[in-house]
Design a protein that fits this description.
Helices cover about 45% and strands about 15% of the residues. By secondary structure, the chain is an alpha/beta fold.
Length: about 375
């Protein structure tokens, strides 16, 4: 069986890794060989956001690299569509596998659907119910053009049922849980990030910002000032996304507080170790909300909604939007709470994201469909 897997951004590389391992595992495939051609669109083209993930997670090198890079949504997606279509015509796969909710996901779905090639969507059924988010448009279109939908949670399954997509859906669990469980011990052994940043025994927070709603308008200034306030009490480690760095360069008046430590983007293992040893996380990322829950670190999500309500229901995540007062209140709540039982630190925790064997379920589902 020949599969084309389409990825282009950091979270997709993380999700790809366990699925790629499962495709190569004869005990999962029943001995049936799967040729997996990885197509990297180049949506994340910076080495710190791309190359290092393939190296650390031991993902096979992409068979095709489109090198699209950044740009406006229309131009970027159009370039991806053109490149993916040419690749699919050349490689003639039995199935196309897409991941998550990026423009790479959308382009893969549309190109494959037009060529009448079956599509499997990993991480299907997510909904923020905010159509102004580009990711929400990508999710909805990708789900409705796909033939096989792998939903990570019961909530995702219910969303698909409401859109009359239940017959195409399988509740597989979340491959990001597979990835965290596989790599957490590896990160503890291999990563020297705490020593490098002189954080051993230090009470610190981690912050990430990358969504346009928080980086392209007035929210960025408010959030940066709030991070400065939080950094008055403890170090805040801020691996800065290229989009955020570009905005900061355009604003020469803002200065980081001494303990707000802006650093280059980190590889997956360094970020996992940094997150696992942090007092709390402040983020607008979707994937990091889950990763924080998986490693038992309290999370403050700098958005008014989340496509992962399970993290809130599980008691590990507080939504604040970009409101400084709400953010500081959430930080105070976490700092004053007993956080020693969040996620897997609590022996009674039942993970809504599955059992850590989602990749095997996905690969078996693909083979059954074929």
């Amino acid at each position: 069986m020949r599969v084309v897997s389409i990825v282009g951004a950091r979270p997709q590389f993380v999700k790809l890794a366990p699925v790629s391992r499962a495709m190569a595992d004869g005990s999962v495939t029943g001995g049936e060989p799967i040729e997996d051609i990885i197509v990297h669109t180049g949506q994340h083209y910076d080495a710190g956001m791309s190359d290092i993930f393939f190296e650390e997670l031991e993902i096979p090198k992409p068979g095709v690299h489109l090198g699209v890079g950044s740009g406006l949504h229309g131009a970027q997606t159009a370039a991806m569509l053109e490149g993916i279509e040419a690749t699919l015509l050349d490689r003639q796969p039995d199935m196309v596998v897409i991941y998550g909710d990026t423009n790479s996901t959308l382009a893969g779905a549309v190109a494959a659907a037009k060529l009448e090639i079956p599509i499997a969507h990993i991480e299907a059924g997510l909904r923020s119910f905010v159509r102004t988010m580009p990711e929400e448009i990508n999710r909805v279109i990708s789900d409705h053009t796909s033939d096989l939908l792998f939903a990570p949670t019961e909530t995702a399954m219910r969303n698909l049922e409401k859109e009359n997509l239940k017959d195409r859906a399988v509740q597989s669990g979340d491959v990001m849980l597979d990835a965290v469980e596989f790599n957490l011990g590896l990160a503890e052994r291999r990563s020297g990030i705490l020593e490098e940043l002189d954080l051993d025994g230090v009470d610190y927070a981690v912050a990430t910002l990358h969504r346009p709603v928080n980086t392209d308008g007035e929210n960025l200034q408010k959030l940066l000032d709030t991070l400065n306030t939080i950094a008055s009490d403890r170090p805040v480690i801020f691996p800065a996304h290229p989009r955020t760095v570009a905005r900061l360069k355009a604003d020469s008046d803002w200065q980081a507080a001494p303990q707000l430590r802006m650093i280059e983007p980190l590889g997956y293992l360094d970020m996992l170790k940094l997150l696992g040893n942090a007092r709390l996380l402040l983020t607008d990322s979707g994937g990091m909300q889950k990763e924080a829950l998986f490693v038992g670190t309290p999370c403050v999500t700098l958005r008014d909604e989340t496509e992962w309500p399970e993290t809130v229901d599980a008691g590990g995540n507080i939504l604040t939007g970009a409101d400084p007062a709400r953010i500081l209140e959430a930080v105070d709540r976490w700092l004053g709470a007993d956080t020693s039982r969040i996620g897997p630190k609590d022996s009674a925790f039942e993970n809504p994201f599955g059992d850590g064997r989602a990749a095997a379920a996905i690969v078996r589902g693909i083979l059954d469909f074929a």
